[in-house]
Amino acid sequence: METVPTPPAATGPAPRRVRRWIGIILRLLFLAAILGYLLHANRDSVRTLLEQHPHWLFLAPAFAFFLAGLLIAIGRWHLLLRAAGVEVSPWWVFRCGLIGAFFNTFIPGGAGGDAVRVGLVCKDLPGRRSSAAVSVIVDRIIGLGGLFVLAAVMILLDWPAFAPPGKLFPMAAAVLAVSGALLAGLALLHAVRNDRRWPRFDQDRLSGKILGALAAYRHRVGRLLAALALSLVVHFSTCVSLYLCVLANPFEETLGFGTTLALGCVSNVVNALPLTAGGIGLGEGAFQELAALAGYSRGFTAFLLYRFVMIAANLLGGPFLLGRALALPAGGAARLRSDQEDQFRAKRDQVDQGNADPSMEKEPPPPLP
Fold this sequence. Notes:
It contains 14 helices and no strands. It is mainly α.
């Protein structure tokens, strides 16, 4: 009897799609579990918050401070784009930054909108894709580094609250170590920026282009320090927003300003972990546990108010996303301008090599969207 051969196992997009959905379901279950635990553990505080209502007088300036931090963060990204040699208009950066902030609310991790920004860069600037995408990565690294440096500054300014044998000393020691390592790394990068032993990367491969764009920042240490300084302003503004949410809590307990800023920085690092949508539950849990070590038992409701402020500010990117979706043909114009910019750079390179008319050197590059 003739046997019928069994078809080969299916391979390709289907298994990847299944794994993606499994990952989404697991994240949703994790989010439900952590939120359920936090709400149950803080049910009395949440009930009091709903019955007595927060002090709305503090929430309006909390929103203003968070929004100011968000806008300064977008300016920091523009600085890093220019440091990478990517000349784009501030309006384009503003729109893409707010769209990325909009997706921070829904994509896993408080920095999930970075992936959206990379996608916008690849779509609108195909000729400068590697450098512009790397600027998003560097922007995130500088942003996280700024959190540690600001936390270290606030710990030193409010040292009695973190000194041994206090419960917060292990966290303080870790923050000081990380921030010290970051500053030492920047100093080392500046010292070896002209070392000839730096490897040369293959620019014909995507990985080589990305690594080469990263290595190019060693000649931009001044811009990196400026971006780090902007990060301090960004996180100071957003953590002041958190402190105002602490004051908006309808409870007699309070938390010191310096302690709130230090604990808020560490909680925002935890909030950036790509485990739940927008980091929901992670930041609340981290701030609750750290604030409890400082003797403040209302950390969950304070960060919950801060979460609502954060979402309200991030949703401002929605209209820009809608406008971009309704004006899809404009993407072609953006790519055309990018191609024109590449042609200008090619002509300028010919001028540098003496193979073209030197008058081209004075021609301004075409504006980008």
